Amino acid sequence: MARYTGPVCRLCRREGEKLFLKGEKCYTDKCPVERRSYPPGQHGQGRRQRPTEYGMHLREKQKLRRIYGVLERQFRRYYEEAARKKGVTGENLLALLETRLDNVVYRLGFAPSRPAARQLVMHGHFAVNGHKVDIPSYHVKPGDVISVRERSRTLDLIKASVEAAQSRGVPSWLELNAEALSGTVKHLPTRAEIDVQVQEHLIVEHYSR
Asked: What is the residue-wise DSSP string for the chain?
């Protein structure tokens, strides 16, 4: 299964904002974006040219792709599926990405970051409706119950993540039972319930060229 394995803080610096790929480190002053907000590389501090229209479209697409840890070919498939659905294509795209199992695990607070959630899912630590699911891209549906499997409930990473996430809360389209280490999908997320700071219409324009 292909995935990005390089230094993730470089991705945040390239986009010029926090993508929250390093868990709790992103909430502290140790975050590289706080200390070096310019892009990585020898030309990172050079004079910034005004981006072209294509450049703005590309940056929004790359930012959203990196936030959810999706590679280019898979992201393109998500866009094509979103375009086939009824409704606004950009909002459909965000909803598809939000309902990935690895993202839901992160949103419920069972993992400190999406990359960590992806790894936990792949290692078989979670179940959907009582059945083990180890596919990070698995799409959850309204009414699905995501739970930590019995053998994984003592993992320090999961327990620490749940404790740290208590203060941040969970999105309104999810319901968390912290004691049972489980969560329920109440409904599919709307655009107002997705706190990802992207201009999705620019991504639609990028693929509609």
From this structure: -----S-HHHHHHHHTS----SGGGGGSTT-HHHH--SPSSTTTTSPPPPPPHHHHHHHHHHHHHHHHT--HHHHHHHHHHHHHSSS-HHHHHHHHHHTBHHHHHHHTTSSSSHHHHHHHHHTT-EEETTEE---TTPBP-TT-EEEE-GGGTT-HHHHHHHHHHTTT---TTEEEETTTTEEEE-SPPPGGG------HHHHHHHHT-
